From TrEMBL:
The chain crosses the membrane at residues 97-120, 132-153. This is HTH cro/C1-type domain-containing protein. Keywords: DNA-binding, Membrane, Transmembrane, Transmembrane helix. Coiled coil: none annotated. Pfam families: HTH_3. GO terms for molecular function: DNA binding. InterPro entries: Cro/C1-type_HTH, Lambda_DNA-bd_dom_sf.
Length: 167
């Protein structure tokens, strides 16, 4: 089973890290599955079958096609494959517009603008369509909100009493 998991991952042109991020497990877990140290649970097997675009039966059964491919791969010298991300697989998980909207709404109140953008940057992943734009917007909102909080607090603590004399 470990060889099949690795073969399907390579066939999808994904790294272990890509698979781990897509199904929300650690990269080490994917590595342990592919080295036959542990086995994925049923939920992860279902996620893997969706990710690779195959049925659960096909993922679990020994495929002669995979065996032949593994035999051919062992004979051929290793070549570096170009990284390819199957966008169809990840569009269902694209949170770009939600993350941008939440970030921009957090800019309304400076206090929220200090705490929400770091969470948005943590939540953002490279499978979002506007991955870099989300980071840029979140960073700008964070910095502007931090500055606004500084101004607000400096006004409170440096309040000087001014008297107006009318003559």
């Amino acid at each position: 089973m470990s060889l099949q998991l690795k073969a399907y991952r390579e066939q999808a042109h994904l790294s272990q890290d890509d698979v781990a991020n897509a199904i929300m497990v650690s990269r080490q877990a994917v590595s342990r599955w592919e080295t036959n140290k542990t086995y994925p649970d049923i939920d992860n097997l279902m996620s893997l079958s969706k990710l690779y675009g195959i049925s659960l039966d096909e993922l679990l059964s020994e495929s002669p096609k995979i065996k032949r491919k593994l035999a051919l791969d062992a004979k051929q010298p290793q070549k570096k494959s170009t990284k390819f991300i199957n966008r169809k697989t990840y569009n269902a998980n694209d949170e770009s517009f939600e993350l941008i909207t939440i970030t921009l709404l957090s800019a309304i109140l400076p206090v929220f603008g200090v705490f929400i953008p770091p969470y948005i940057m943590f939540r953002n992943n490279k499978f979002n369509r506007y991955f870099i734009l989300i980071y840029i917007i979140a960073m700008i909102v964070f910095l502007v909100s931090l500055f606004n909080c500084y101004l607000f607090l400096s006004d409170i603590f440096t309040h000087s009493s001014t008297e107006i004399h009318l003559d």
